[in-house]
Structure formats: C-alpha cells, structure tokens
Amino acid sequence: MASDKRAKYFSVDAFSVLAAAEAGNWWFRSRNRLILWTLDRYCQPIGSFLEIGCGTGFVLEGVHRAYGEAKLFGSEYFEEGLNFARERVPSAEFFRLDATQMTDVGVFDVVGAFDVLEHIDEDERVLSNVFNAIKAGGFLIVTVPQHRWLWSPVDDYACHVRRYTRGELVGKIKAAGFDVVQVSSFVSLLLPLMWISRLLSRTKSVEPMSEFRIPGWLNRVLEAVMSLERRLIAWGLRFPAGGSLIVVGRKNRDSAQ
Questions:
Q1: CA distance 113 to 173
Q2: In angstroms, rounded to a whole number, what is the distance separating the alpha carbons of residues 147 and 168?
Q3: Would the pTM count as exceeding 0.90?
C-alpha cells in the first residue's frame, strides 16, 4: 500500500484515540444503538454480517452482542485498525480490503458501512461491489455525514471527500441496484449546536480530537438527547435534516447474482 494513499484516507494514529474514546463517547454509543435498532427493525434475518471499514471494531462488537449466532466479518483498509478489532471481537473473521476492489458475489445477508463512504472517491463503485456481495433479499445499511454546509476542519482532519445530501446518497444507492426501504437524518435535535461548533472551528484554531474531551455531564446530556431522538425515529418520525444520514437498502430477491 503506497504511503501517499494511506495519508490521503486516514491518519492511522487516530485508531488508538478512537479505541480509547468510543465506548464512553455519546456519539459513538448513540450511533451504535441506532444501528442496532435499524438492524432489528429492517434487516432480518442476519445469518452473516460484513462491516466494511470496521475500524477498531466498536460497531461489530455491538452486533456480536446482539446477534451472537451470526457469522461476523470485518474488513478494514488499515491493519492498524484491525489490530484493535480482533481484540474486541475474537470470534469474527477480519481481513484487509480496499472496497473499490471487492469481488465477492452473493455471500452476505447484511453489509454495513458506517461513516466510510465519505472517505472514498469512488463511492458508487463501492456500492456496486457491495450490491454484488449481498445475497438476493439481503440488506445494506449505511451511515454518512450530511450537509455540505457543515463542512469544517473536522472533516479535513478526518480526510472526508464529501458530506452527502440526502438526494445524493439515496440516488447512488438506488443506482447501485438497491430498493431504499428506510432513510432518516440523525443528530437532528443537536443540529443547531453542531452548526455553531462547526462555525466556530472555521474562525479559530480548534484541535479536531477535542470533541472527544468534553465534561462527563455534557457527554451524558448529549447522549440523553440522542436517546430521545432514537425513540422518535422508532415511533415513525423521519428527520429531514441532521448531522448524519442513515439509509437501509434491500437487494430484490429477483436480482441475479
């Protein structure tokens, strides 16, 4: 793997920071709960599950706890992330993968890509590869950052290529062959605070990883707001705007492998 390509996509030093922060951070904990609710509501049955760009394995660990009988797979562009993921979910099968080169056909019941596509120039190619890898009748679940007007130095630090609009992401998922069965923004109730935070980061020097270093009381308040938001989504509310998007696509049972 060329060093310039590694630098383009991610700072590998961030894996150790993420591994230490995820389990206690309001955003990662809340996103995990929303992903697990979505899997339970829309993506059954789950006999096999692949997470593309599994990072340190935090999401996959949650999936393992909820679906212990499922065969779990995790792929990651960087070996540095897989080192943490293997420790978190020893029973899963892990491998390095450039998702633009994925060649599996009809293997997985569900494939997840959680805050991954925004790092990849050829996101449409990845979605097409994932469509091929999913069994007929299987599911794709994706989360991405939303709204171009939220772009800030945090996105630069994370090596994002884009923040998505709803129409852009839904259109690309449909173009890959999926039927879209669920779409909602999230981090919606906190969107005004997020906008202010991003605006401030554009006008003064802010260390991007400082978002992980917040007081415990604030972390608990933000997580409580996200819990309320998840309940509203579970009750049928679909937020039109938010810091992130979650989309579920289904591969039609009549699709040829």
A1: 12
A2: 11
A3: yes
